[in-house]
């Protein structure tokens, strides 16, 4: 049978408390044990312990800290080049993919598929910034407002979650991107990057050609004004116009027949 001994009568605690050998030599408790040990068991100190057949559930206290993160949107303003934006987002998406799975990690140069996924990502973010209410209605399969900016374009959401222009030319033989171009707003920074990139790719073409080239894949709302703004805000175009103000010599020379001669003899 086992009995509980309180700490003040526990012999092992004498040494753990740093009792010197001299005090142990003169300590009757060390040599003889507690004083009640030589008495009948009825006089031993009794510790009333209640044995529980069913242990009650002890719930752990969980501390939850709530952090409010203010999302200011994607920092499009930090990028002045479309290629740099796509590559940055593509590397971020690759990092997320490699963190999710150790097998089949992506390394090396970026692939065309990764750059395409990055383009879809930034377009979705720009559309969420520009057409937030319309996007919510389309996701809930509701009709958009009749007086909204997208009311006459019959928009829909494709398999990548991107808003595209609808229409009645589904049976045509045109490419899918031409039949259903991606909707973008001319007021968004990403659209300005598209126009600037295409403007330099076309070797500083005029606003009509620039807008036509953009509409091969996108449908920019207010794109005509943005095309003019892109053309006339380009430094290279300004330098060309300034250099062209100086007329050539044949245009500033005197008219013909001011001087005459004869070969008669």
Describe the fold and architecture.
The chain is mainly alpha-helical and 265 residues long. It has two domains: 36 residues, no CATH class; 167 residues, no CATH class. Helices cover 41% and strands 5% of the residues. The chain is built from twelve helices and four strands. The protein has a two-stranded antiparallel sheet with strand order 1-2. A two-stranded parallel sheet has the order 3-4. Helix 8 packs across helix 10 and helix 9 crosses helix 10. The radius of gyration is 42 Å and the shape is elongated. The chain starts with 11 loop residues before the first helix and ends in a 13-residue tail after the last helix. The mean pLDDT is 83.
User: Helix tally?
Assistant: 12
Q: What value does the average pLDDT take?
A: 83
Per DSSP E runs of 2 or more residues, the count of β-strands stands at: 4
- Stretches where pLDDT is under 50 for at least 5 consecutive residues are none
The chain-level structural class is mainly alpha
Looking across the biggest beta sheet, what order are the strands in? 1-2
Beta-strand content: under 5%
Report the major sheet.
2 strands, antiparallel
- Give the domain tally: 2
**CA-to-CA gap between the ends?**
157 Å
Helix content: 40-55%
What is the CA-based Rg, rounded?
A: 42 Å
Shape: elongated
Element pattern in H and E: HHHHHHEEHEHHEHHH
